[in-house]
Amino acid sequence: MAAKNQHNPKWTIEQLNAAIEDVNNGAPKRKNAEKYAIPWGTFSDKLSGRRKMEEQSKTVFSKEEVCEILNFLKMTSARGFGKTKDELLVVVKNYLDQKGRETQWENNKPSTKWFRLFRKRHPEIVFRKPQLLGKQRALITKRDILDWFDQMTNVVKEIDPTIFLEPERIYNCDESGFSLNALSGRVLSYLDNNFVYQVGSEAKTLITALVCCSAKGHYTWPILIYPGTQFRGFKPQEVFEQSFIGRSENGWITQNLFYEWLKQVFVPQTAHVKKPLLLLVDGHISHQSVQASKLCDENNIVLYCLPPHSSHILQPLDVGVFKTMKSEWKKAVKRQNETEIVTKRTFAKTFKDAYETTIARPLADKAFRACGLYPLDPTNVDWSKVVSGVAQVILMLSSHHSLHLPMGLD
């Protein structure tokens, strides 16, 4: 016998009200229930008051919200953002949090049952369980990179092929951590002196900076993300006005912070740029939220994901900007420590010096070129950073001690 569908009855509340009205006017109860196609048990419970006339909907999301989530999954999947089950649940949790919604789920994170029913209702969405990749399997190949270029080019050209002709329409943003106790490198000492010191902060605090630039060298305001829930007696933006300040429990980027940076910084500061424009990011979960995807779509921003394990090869900021910025950061820390130790209070002032010195140099255009992103040319990629097929075989075989290297590879 098929199970009754209690959540999606075939009768409507209007039919139920009409049936009850007829009964009140003298109509037979059972025949009236049959007339309106309402199960007798349900109708009897409604009449007696054992069940409320209008029960609260058991669905958490409206049809419009479900459409938003589905559109997000389809769009991000096409642009390289794969989703595991856990990642989707986190995305939906943050979606509810940003809307200020409270649900029966613990911490607003959907249950496994919701996930199972969601899959059942939408078979067109295919989910895969996350697989842990060992270091050897995580190495990216030349074929992976070329396939990504082909896919990315096809997707963007379908939207607007002229994007690749204009460097001011191609952006990259990425995060990097800056330690308060950055050392400036080795120092000189006498041969018989085994202990040398540098003045600096003993704190191991790491503050994250999200930096964003175009292939033409236009930088938007960075976001500085401090660990903790509040600032005690200092306001970082007062000393670095052209920055966006955020906080998170551990000082790392979150979905909400990335969304707020997009909304308050990136969108207004690229308003002058011809649309659509391309924004390349890595696949970190913080870049993957329904709100961020919707905001980008509304503002003609193509948010596209770089392939996994490729930041040192395809991410312009990693390839050609952050190294210089970290070097300038160490110099700025050394200068600051001569008068006052770098702490969270003085971080923004010190970082501002390193940041402004870095972005004043012509680094961005060279970085995008080295990544093959502008001009669009994969042959510009430094293939020496890509592990060869033979090397991958060696690494994979060497991880299994019981196996011997094949002839010619030892």
UniProtKB/TrEMBL annotation:
Residues 207-351 form the DDE-1 domain. Pfam families: DDE_1. GO terms for cellular component: nucleus. GO terms for molecular function: DNA binding. This is DDE-1 domain-containing protein. It comes from Elysia crispata (lettuce slug).
